[in-house]
Design brief:
The chain is α+β, with helices and mostly antiparallel strands. It has helices spanning 13-21, 48-52, 61-67, 78-91, 121-134, 147-156, 169-173, 185-193, 199-204, 207-214, 217-226, 255-276, 308-316, 360-363, 377-390; strands at 5-9, 31-37, 40-46, 72-75, 99-102, 106-110, 140-144, 161-163, 242-252, 278-289, 294-305, 328-340, 400-403, 413-416, 453-461, 465-466, 472-477, 480-494, 507-515, 520-526, 539-544. The two termini are 48 Å apart.
């Protein structure tokens, strides 16, 4: 996957931060922050009101005060600004795990493999701007193949949000000034005297003569922006609550040896968690190979856990996803998130080998003593089972089905993390059993019985033979003609016009039919069979009773 880098520039970072630190200040007053340049004081940041009076960055403070007599001036605070910028970079981990501060007023985000989570790169840029705007920050952002191109377009481009398609970096940089390449002031001045003002002009100059005149700095910056030379960026790693590391004497590669080291790391982490009265909620296992590549697996827990056996069991089920390559020389276990938990008072229901013990008292299948009832043990075992299934490779996880307001059966439920309480209104009636009452306590009739098996997508069938009362009498299912002994219907459902305008006027007529062989089907017709606006009249099998 090609690398994609996002550069964020906060042009009003210093003044915006000053107003945040001083919430009672009036943002409409002209404000300027100054710093010392030898014996003189120069402006380093101004707000919108000050710029409207002609105050600019780099001016002498005396000149700025001559332009605006009532200018509010304060000395810059680089230490506080740097710490705040670092905190903002950590907050930006909601967009990508790889972020870094770009002092004094910028951020780096490695968006490789993350843009699809926001609906694409353009949508990701809009999301970043909207969320930072909620925090009171104005930004200019650019997304490109290289860090140099993203940095240049964010600060010197003609748009606030720029997304350069892969492979189009040279065309996007051609019309930018040479100052966009992060060159030293003396080099920019020398290039300007030679008439080289744009990046395209710099590309046209012979490289040998350019190197003799200005050295390798302009060539290196140009190659980094165009992707000919790699540029190293130091991304900040999230600080783990706890971590343990083991450097191995010899590289290992078998599952047994990996699991042995995992057990040692889990014992170390668990003991430190128990002393701190905490439990792990998310763990990262990092395996460093001899070729300097890193293999990582992440597991999560359903509750704070500080039992080493339980932690080791979760990691053991993911060992098969690690590619040892030519060998692993170091392993580390990081607790990415921890929460308070009481010290361990008993053993887990899982043995170190991962198998259920034959002793019913230790396996959790029976109470350990007559004084310990069985009921309290079952929820804990179910929690551990759900925890293991959630971390199983290739498994989407465990979820509950919650009712929705959609009238169409295939959209009447949605996955939910928590089980929803059974509603007392009509929504709950969609899932009632066939033997339940036909009326609710409020007197309104409930919906008809639903099939035991509901097809996720209704199966299309040829239009059946209809009787005089418009009920189906014969239809073809899986190549066989089935005769209907009895039909109950129609049950008419209308589309969710309040949610989906395309369903306005949509109608479905459902029948419960029983064949001569005793099989029961749930059929429906799309439309009322008379008006074209209600549906095209196609027939479907939606479920089996």
């Amino acid at each position: 996957m090609p690398r994609r880098l996002l550069s964020l520039w906060l042009p009003h970072w210093h003044t915006t931060l000053w107003h945040k630190v001083h919430p009672h200040s009036d943002p409409g007053l002209p404000l300027a922050l100054y710093g010392r340049d030898g014996q003189s004081r120069r402006i380093v940041a101004v707000n919108r009101a000050a710029r409207a009076y002609g105050v600019q960055k780099g001016q002498f403070l005396a000149m700025a005060r001559s332009l605006v007599p009532d200018l509010v001036t304060h000395p810059e605070t680089p230490g506080r600004d740097a710490r705040s910028l670092q905190k903002l970079a950590e907050w930006c981990r909601c967009f990508s795990p790889l972020v870094a501060a770009d002092p004094p007023d910028g951020l780096w985000i490695d968006s490789t493999g993350c843009a699809h989570l926001f609906g694409g790169e353009a949508s990701m840029l809009e999301t970043v701007r909207a969320r930072l705007a909620e925090r009171g920050h104005e930004i200019r952002a650019a997304l490109a193949d290289t860090a140099g191109a993203a940095h240049a377009l964010a600060r010197h481009g003609d748009r606030e949000l720029t997304c350069v398609p892969p492979g189009k970096t040279g065309q996007a940089l051609a019309d930018l000034p040479v100052a966009a390449l992060r060159l030293a002031p003396d080099i920019r001045t020398g290039l300007g005297l030679m008439g080289i003002t744009r990046v395209a002009d710099l590309c046209a100059v012979p490289r040998a003569s350019l190197a003799r005149r200005f050295g390798m700095a302009p060539l290196s910056r140009l190659d980094q922006a165009l992707g000919r030379e790699k540029e190293a960026l130091c991304f900040d790693r999230p600080v783990a609550a706890l971590h343990a590391r083991r450097v191995l004497l010899e590289p290992i590669g078998t599952a047994e040896s990996l699991l042995h080291v995992v057990g040692v790391l889990c014992d170390d982490i668990a003991s430190r968690l128990q002393k701190a009265g905490q439990g792990a909620r998310r763990l990262d296992l990092l395996c460093q190979r001899v070729d300097d590549a890193t293999q990582a697996i992440r597991v999560g827990t359903s509750e704070p856990v500080n039992d080493p056996v339980r932690l080791c069991r979760l990691l053991q089920e993911r060992i098969e996803t690690i590619d040892p390559g030519f060998g692993i020389e170091a392993m580390s276990l990081h607790v990415d998130h921890a929460e308070p938990r009481q010290p361990v008072t008993g053993t887990s229901g899982l043995t170190p080998s991962g198998l259920v013990s034959s002793d019913p008292a230790s396996s959790g299948l029976a109470p350990a003593s007559p004084a310990a009832p069985e009921a309290p043990r079952m929820p804990a075992m179910l929690v551990e089972l759900a925890e293991r299934l959630r971390n199983r490779p290739g498994l989407r996880g465990i979820y509950h089905l919650a009712a929705t307001d959609s009238p169409f059966p295939e959209q009447a439920q949605k996955p939910a993390d928590r089980p929803a309480r059974r509603a007392a209104g009509p929504c709950a009636s969609r899932f009632r059993s066939p033997g339940s009452d036909d009326t609710a306590g409020d007197g309104f009739p409930r919906l008809w019985p639903r099939p035991v098996r509901l097809f996720a997508a209704p199966c299309a069938i040829a239009p059946p033979v209809l009787a005089e009362d418009d009920s189906p009498r014969r239809f073809v299912w899986q190549g066989q003609m089935l005769r209907i002994r009895g039909a109950n219907g129609p049950e008419r459902l209308h589309g969710a016009w309040w949610q989906h305008p395309a369903q306005a006027g949509a109608i479905r007529d459902y029948w419960i039919v029983e064949t001569e062989a005793g099989d029961r089907f749930w059929l429906f017709r799309r439309g009322d069979g008379q008006n074209a606006w209600s549906g095209d009249g196609a027939w479907f099998v939606h479920g089996l009773f």
